[in-house]
Every structure is written in structure tokens, then in C-alpha cells.
């Protein structure tokens, strides 16, 4: 396991970055206040200096100075009001998935983490825990657990426990007490920086150069948090199971990206509407089409260099386990925990997917049909 001093560094780094974010966020309304008062004093000075001799001109200039200051004030304050994105997906209640709720309640108790307020099933190949204030910026901080339907189809029940152990470890050590609020402050400051780049492009570019160290430390913090979550997850699951799960998810994700989705989209060349629906047929596609590759480079995957997460190879090395695939294909976690919901979930995700791809799909189909007709005419001549 990584040395405990690395985790102590994580705590200090997280606190320091949260304090920097808090100071930076407080400086924005202070700067906005200065700009507003500068505009007001400029308007007052213009009126006093010119009002007696040229009242109309003085009034116009004073109004221009005051409105300019007010406009800049509003623009500055607008960078603070960029809310966190709401969880996306289908929210499932305790009545919909009793076994799954019992599982996550037991894991929260075992790791002494915050409990989950809401569970969402998403169309993505991932799992995540999000924390949001109930009313945007105010109210109790609520915890949301996001589980991707493709992920649930990709892992067994024990592997899903390993995935959840990693996510709950984030809650147990990194999102408790001040850490919870610190993470929200850091995220708020990053959103404000993005907005500054949109509202004041020149200032945004300069801020990116000034804050290079802040961005580097944020990336460093994200990587350390992943190693720490893996280490704590081994209190609930064996390190070999966690490593096996990392491999399984990596292989299944690559299968979906390189094989399954291209096959689904290839239907656009021969059909006006898809016969294979990606989410409805996902479980069957996994069972029939997925084949494991025994090569070492295939097992550890190929994480993007731009990813804030450590690579699969690095995480396996920290866990001190060798790349190893599952010995047998057991029923997926989706069929165990979400069986009654699979058809409604697939219908909802397929409907959204078809709305997104329909225009491009039909354009490709028409182009291919047009090409076939042109070739047939050429051959008949």
C-alpha cells in the first residue's frame, strides 16, 4: 500500500487548496464592491465638477459612469453563480431496489461514512458519489450515488461490492466534516474560473497562467485520493478482488467503446431505425460478444494521459496485486440488484439515445441509400 505519509499529505493539500479557494471566492465580491463604489464616486465627481455649468452633459456622463460600474459589478458577481450540475439519470427508490439499498447502508455503516440520500442509475460506464447542497448553495449537503447501467452489466455482485467500497471510501475519509465543505469550495472556485474565462477572456487566460500551481496541485490531490480510496476499500474487500474488478471494468469498457457501440452505430448504413437497441440489448451483447484478452497490456488497459485518475497499472501496483481476470462469468450485478428495473431503465436510456442520434443516423442512412442507387444506375448503363 502507499505510505501513510502520502495520505497525511492528502489531508494537508486538500485543506490548503480549500482555503485558497475560499479566499479567492471572497475576493470576487470584494472586488465587485470596489468597482461599484468606483463607478458611484466617479459619477458623483462628474456631477459636482460639471453639474453647475453643463447639467445635461454632467448628468449623461455621470449616468454613464454609474451604469458602467454597475454593469462591471454584475459581470463580476455572475462568475460566482454557476451551480453544480445536478445528477443525471433515473432515480431509484428503496422500494425499487431493496437489496441494493441494504447493501449500501451496510457499507456506509462499516466504513463510518455518510449515508446515501439518493441513488441514480445512469447510462454511463462509471460509478461516482456526488455531494450537493439541497438548495443550490444553501441547505443540508446531500449525497448522491450514481451507478452506470453498463457498469452493472459488466461486473458480478462481488465485483460491484468492490466498486462501491472504493466509492464509499471517498466518503469515509475525504468527504467528511470540513473535507466535505472543502471539496465543494474547490469545485466552486474551479467553476468560477471557467466562468471568468467566458466573461473576461483576457483575464481568464492570465488567471490560468497565474494559477498553474493550483491546477497542478488539484490534479495531484485527485490522484492521491484514488490511491487512498483503494487502500481503505481493502478493509471491506480483498485486494485481489479489487484488482480483478479494476481489470474487468477496464476490459468491458474497452469492449463497449471498440466493439459494441461501433456495431450498434453500423446499423445506420442498412436500417432507417436500429434493430439492436444499445441499452435494451446490453446484457446480451456482453454475454455473447465479450471475449477476454490474456495479454498483459490488454488487462491493464490504456488510461488517457490527460486523465486525473491513476492508470490501472499504477493502481494494481499500489495494491500489490498482479493483473488477473475473473476465473468465471457469473450473473451480472444488474440482473441481481436491478432485475425488475432493467426494461424500464433500458427504455428510458434508449429513448434519450435515439433522440440524440436520430438526425445523424438518418442522414447516414440516406447517404448510403443514395450511393447504392447511384452505383446501380452506373452498372445498368
Describe this structure in words.
The protein has a four-stranded mixed sheet with strand order 1-2-4-3. Helix 1 packs antiparallel against helix 8 (212-233). The protein is an alpha+beta fold. The protein has helices at 4-50, 55-78, 98-111, 149-154, 157-173, 178-199, 201-210, 212-233, 239-266, 282-289, 296-300, 312-319, 333-337, 342-380; strands spanning 90-92, 118-122, 127-135, 138-148. The mean pLDDT is 88.
Concise summary:
This protein has helices spanning 4-50, 55-78, 98-111, 149-154, 157-173, 178-199, 201-210, 212-233, 239-266, 282-289, 296-300, 312-319, 333-337, 342-380, and strands spanning 90-92, 118-122, 127-135, 138-148. It is α+β, with helices and mostly antiparallel strands and 381 residues long.
Main attributes?
globular, 381 residues, alpha+beta, four-stranded mixed sheet, 7% strand, 4 strands
Amino acid at each position: 500500500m502507499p505510505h501513510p505519509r502520502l495520505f497525511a499529505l492528502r489531508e494537508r493539500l486538500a485543506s490548503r487548496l480549500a482555503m485558497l479557494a475560499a479566499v479567492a471566492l471572497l475576493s470576487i465580491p470584494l472586488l465587485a464592491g470596489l468597482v461599484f463604489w468606483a463607478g458611484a464616486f466617479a459619477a458623483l465627481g462628474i456631477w459636482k465638477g460639471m453639474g453647475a455649468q453643463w447639467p445635461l452633459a454632467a448628468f449623461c456622463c455621470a449616468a454613464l459612469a454609474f451604469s458602467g460600474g454597475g454593469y462591471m459589478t454584475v459581470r463580476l458577481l455572475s462568475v460566482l453563480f454557476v451551480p453544480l450540475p445536478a445528477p443525471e439519470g433515473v432515480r431509484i427508490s428503496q422500494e425499487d431496489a431493496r437489496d441494493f439499498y441494504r447493501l449500501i447502508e451496510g457499507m456506509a455503516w462499516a466504513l463510518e461514512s455518510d449515508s446515501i440520500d439518493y441513488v441514480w442509475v445512469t447510462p454511463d460506464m462509471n460509478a461516482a458519489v456526488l455531494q450537493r447542497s439541497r438548495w443550490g448553495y444553501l441547505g443540508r449537503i446531500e449525497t448522491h450515488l450514481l451507478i452506470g447501467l453498463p457498469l452493472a452489466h459488466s461486473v458480478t455482485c462481488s465485483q460491484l461490492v468492490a466498486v462501491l467500497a472504493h466509492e464509499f471510501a471517498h466518503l469515509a475519509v475525504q468527504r467528511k466534516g470540513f473535507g466535505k465543505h472543502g471539496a465543494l469550495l474547490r469545485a466552486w472556485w474551479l467553476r468560477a474560473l471557467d466562468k471568468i474565462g467566458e466573461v473576461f477572456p483576457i483575464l481568464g487566460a492570465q488567471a490560468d497562467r497565474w494559477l498553474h500551481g493550483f491546477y497542478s496541485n488539484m490534479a495531484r490531490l485527485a490522484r492521491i485520493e484514488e490511491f487512498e480510496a483503494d487502500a481503505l476499500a481493502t478493509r471491506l474487500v480483498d485486494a485481489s478482488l479489487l484488482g480483478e474488478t479494476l481489470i474487468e471494468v477496464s476490459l468491458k469498457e474497452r469492449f463497449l467503446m471498440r466493439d459494441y457501440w461501433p456495431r450498434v452505430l453500423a446499423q445506420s448504413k442498412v436500417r432507417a431505425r436500429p434493430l439492436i437497441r444499445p441499452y435494451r440489448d446490453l446484457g446480451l451483447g456482453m454475454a455473447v460478444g465479450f471475449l477476454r484478452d490474456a495479454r498483459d497490456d490488454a488487462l491493464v488497459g490504456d488510461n488517457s494521459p490527460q486523465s486525473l485518475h491513476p492508470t490501472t497499472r499504477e493502481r494494481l501496483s499500489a495494491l500489490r496485486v498482479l493483473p488477473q481476470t475473473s476465473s468465471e462469468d457469473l450473473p451480472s450485478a444488474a440482473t441481481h440488484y436491478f432485475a425488475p428495473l432493467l426494461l424500464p431503465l433500458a427504455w428510458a436510456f434508449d429513448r434519450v439515445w435515439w433522440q440524440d442520434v436520430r438526425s445523424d443516423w438518418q442522414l447516414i442512412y440516406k447517404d448510403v441509400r443514395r450511393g447504392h442507387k447511384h452505383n446501380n444506375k452506373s452498372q445498368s448503363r
